[in-house]
TrEMBL record:
Residues 446-460 have a biased composition (Acidic residues). The lineage of its organism: Eukaryota, Metazoa, Chordata, Craniata, Vertebrata. This is Keratocan. Keywords: Disulfide bond, Extracellular matrix, Glycoprotein, Leucine-rich repeat, Repeat, Secreted, Signal. Belongs to the small leucine-rich proteoglycan (SLRP) family. SLRP class II subfamily. Residues 437-460 are annotated as: Disordered. InterPro entries: Leu-rich_rpt, Leu-rich_rpt_typical-subtyp, LRR_dom_sf, LRRNT, SLRP. Residues 1-39 form the signal peptide. Its main location: secreted.
Length: 460
């Protein structure tokens, strides 16, 4: 079957075929174009105007007229953008100025990607962003910004400014941004005096904030109570104030890897918050395991100075109260990483009895991944566990697989918390419906023998 996709195709067909065949093909192509136009919520007149106004440096797909691709062109300035553009891709160029004149007609803009250019704060012209009432996603990673851009449109939902030179958040810059749910300020030059309650005012519905790889010496103040995902890896934080997380009742994913946290600066019950599901404290200076909340599912304590671990000290509930796995009081911990400490094997029995849902422990005892499956301990309270999925649709900031083969890799030399590449999105999907990226829990791959054992245990 012959299909017509562009008007240029129509011309070639007409030249190749004559008479009635040419007329038929022309009608088919017209129907194709009309169908595409109707599918893109754009009139035929707007469609023609958009295609004809496409900058010569860029690509404007006829079957997707709302998108303009000007990426990887070596551009030093932004060309004049057509009026019906919703998605504009300008990443990987040499652009120094975010020109208000070039974007003057693009009032319908929804998605703007300016990653990896040379835009400075001085190069962001006044009113260039605030005049875009539909702009929902702004990408300005890997530029030369020294301050968070202002003024920003009230329609903004996600703002990505990682790997710039930002040291300042202008007071009130976020006021009115009630739709903003994702703020990425990773790998900048923010210090404690820049991240304050005043500078963060207005983030009333924020879900995810990334302040990793900055110059923070203390926990940031003024975070909105809606915060669910908080990333503070790679700073110089030494202590956490008692009761700090009482102001963050929804925090579920907390990352403090690569800081300077010692047990003296971490109140033992500071993480005892029912909402926390994933807690990462790797590469710090802890000497003790903090109190683990019953609802916690993933705990990363590798590469600290912990010398011992005891179920009596870290179990959030009394073992005798846990009758079976269905009991709501059973701690939900499934994944525990302890390698890179001074803990002498084996893992104490009372730890296993407390955290009965554990399926994976990474430690140094045999330089291998220990997989625990229900049925290993013939106890009344321990029964065969069904295989479960450890996937939650929340976050892709760290796509590293923690369950690595220790025989073929060196955990000590791995930086599993480097967000350098994961946060860069060059050509995002147009259809978006989530508040934050998808989160992939680490999953241990069982051997064939282990799978067979599990299947035998599940047989009646």
């Amino acid at each position: 079957m012959v299909m017509c996709t562009t008007c240029a195709d129509t011309t070639s067909f007409l030249q190749k075929f004559g008479g009635k065949m040419a007329i038929l093909l022309g009608l088919l192509c017209t129907l194709c174009l009309v169908g595409q136009v109707l599918g893109q919520d754009i009139t035929h007149e707007e469609y023609l105007a958009q295609i004809q106004a496409c900058p010569r440096e860029c690509r404007c797909p006829p079957n997707f007229p709302h998108a303009v691709y000007c990426d990887n062109k070596g551009l030093k300035s932004i060309p004049t953008i057509p009026p019906h553009t919703w998605y504009l891709y300008l990443q990987n160029n040499l652009i120094e100025v975010l020109s208000a004149d070039a974007l003057r007609n693009a009032t319908q803009l929804r998605w703007l990607n300016l990653n990896r250019n040379k835009i400075t704060s001085e190069g962001v012209e006044e009113g260039v962003l605030s005049t875009k009432p539909n702009l929902a996603h702004l990408y300005m990673d890997d530029n030369l910004l020294s301050s968070v851009p202002s003024a920003l449109p009230a329609s903004l939902e996600s703002l990505r400014l990682s790997r710039n030179r930002i040291s300042k958040i202008p007071p009130g810059v976020f006021i009115g941004l009630d739709k903003l749910n994702l703020l990425d300020l990773q790998a900048n030059k923010l210090m404690d005096d820049a991240v304050t309650e005043v500078s963060l005012k207005g983030l009333n519905n924020l879900v995810q904030i990334n302040l990793a790889k900055n110059q923070l010496n203390s926990m940031p103040i003024g975070l909105p109570p809606t915060t669910t995902q908080l990333f503070l890896d790679g700073n110089n934080i030494e202590k956490i104030p008692a009761g700090y997380f009482k102001g963050l009742p929804k925090v579920a994913f907390l990352r403090l890897n690569y800081n300077k946290l010692g047990s003296s600066g971490v109140p033992r019950d500071v993480f005892n918050v029912s909402s926390i599901l994933d807690l990462q404290l790797s590469h710090n200076q802890l000497t003790e395991v903090p109190l683990i909340p019953a609802g916690l599912e993933h705990l990363h304590l590798d590469h600290n100075n912990i010398k011992s671990v005891s179920g009596a000290n870290i179990c959030p509930v009394a073992v005798e109260t846990m009758e079976d796995s269905a009991n709501e009081s059973v701690p939900r911990l499934r994944y525990l990483r302890l390698d890179g400490n001074d803990i002498k094997p084996p893992i104490p029995r009372d730890v296993i009895l407390c955290f009965r849902l554990l399926t994976s422990i990474v430690d140094d005892s045999m330089r291998m991944l220990v997989r625990l499956v229900w049925g290993l301990f013939v106890l009344k309270a321990v029964v065969a566990s069904p295989r479960i999925s450890r996937q939650a649709d929340l976050d892709t900031y760290d796509s590293a697989n923690y369950d690595v083969d220790l025989d073929n890799s060196n955990l000590e030399n791995q930086d599993n918390y480097d967000y350098e590449e994961e946060l860069t999105i060059d050509d995002p999907q147009i259809e978006i419906g989530t508040l934050a990226p998808d989160y992939n829990y680490p999953v241990t791959e069982a051997s064939e023998e282990q799978v067979e054992e599990e299947e035998e245990e599940e047989l009646p």
